[in-house]
Amino acid sequence: xxxxxEGNGEGTRAVRAGLPExxxxxxxxxxxxxxxxxxxxxxxxxxxxxxxxxxxxxTLLERAIGELEAPGQGGLHTLVFASGMAAISxxxxxxxxxxxxxVLPNDGYQVLPLVRAQLEAYGIEVRTAPTxxxxxxxxxDGAKLLWIExxxxxxxxxxxxxxxVEAAHTRGALVAVDNTLATPLGQRPLELGADFSVASGTKQxxxxxxVLLGYVTGRDGEAxxxxxxxxxxxxxxxxxxxxxxxxxxxxxxxxxxxxxxATALVLAEALKGRPDVTGLRYPGLPDDPSHKVASxxxxxxxxxxxxxxxxxxxxxxxxxxLRLVDDxxxxxxxxxxxxxxxxxxxxxxxxxxxxFSVGAEDPEDLVADVLRALDESAR
Length: 379
Fold this sequence. Notes:
Blueprint: H1 10-16, H2 56-69, E1 76-81, H3 84-95, E2 101-105, H4 112-121, E3 125-129, E4 145-149, H5 161-170, E5 174-178, E6 196-200, E7 214-219, H6 222-234, H7 240-250, H8 253-272, E8 278-281, H9 291-297, E9 304-308, H10 312-321, E10 326-327, E11 337-340, E12 353-357, H11 363-377
Parallel strand pairs: 2-3, 2-4, 4-5, 5-6, 10-11
Antiparallel strand pairs: 1-7, 6-7, 8-9, 9-12, 11-12
Helix pairs in contact: 2-7, 3-6, 8-11, 10-11
């Protein structure tokens, strides 16, 4: 076991999370354990038996994520997966059976409609509601699981996790929160009462755009046992190299998050003064529709800013004119990215809608680049 990071500041916790006890002349973070099988004489026993079930590199990463998601809390467990969608699927398909009902956001991640179709094919009733305004309350009766995505991707609406958890638990439903956009340094769903905190580690948690990863942190018991069993059955496991890279990257999480969040607010403030920018959303803006609720449950507001330009053509000219920003999907990386989100076809957004992920560039350089690109694309 690593030395506890309970009571330490967030930066200290991120730097030391999941590290093993120091061993003389050994690396502080052991390298990835490349092993499909382990020495196993006699009867089966011990923590590591077969590579699909456990790996020492996963163990350290899972411990690190757990220390960030719920510092000081016992009775919790974290499982890592090959991707964020693997983690999402593990919760949904391990907890639900034919005849059950689940509530999903209708404004969440654009793969959720595919998930809905598969759930319905298995005989599961799917109800949907928008994230803003806690609209899920209207469709909770009889549900087995409530799935929350807050802030929502890409619209950046926020719902009241505490309120929805209380209502769901009163009705006998479990609650899972997609915490991808917030990260554990922005929001801790388990401290707000949720049963599962689920995220894509591909995004800001690892932050370099070079790792696909997902995880589920939840309260020990039958629910997490079912998630673990699902991972074993499906085999949706991360490679040891990806797990090691993720753990290494977590050490800089606070540094990255603080820089990116601060710059996101600066950019959002700069965009407020542009008459050609409409529908600007960032929960950190005091006048954002989500700010009041977000400020009650979030420590940081994220690195994503969304806004709309007049047309598809204008948005594409803007993206082409950017010099410090890559036209790419995903978010949370140290290099800023932006995209016209409507090109994927799965989000109910205007043609000119832009999802902008703020990186770690100097704020003045990034803002100058964005404002220049807006000017050039308007001609």
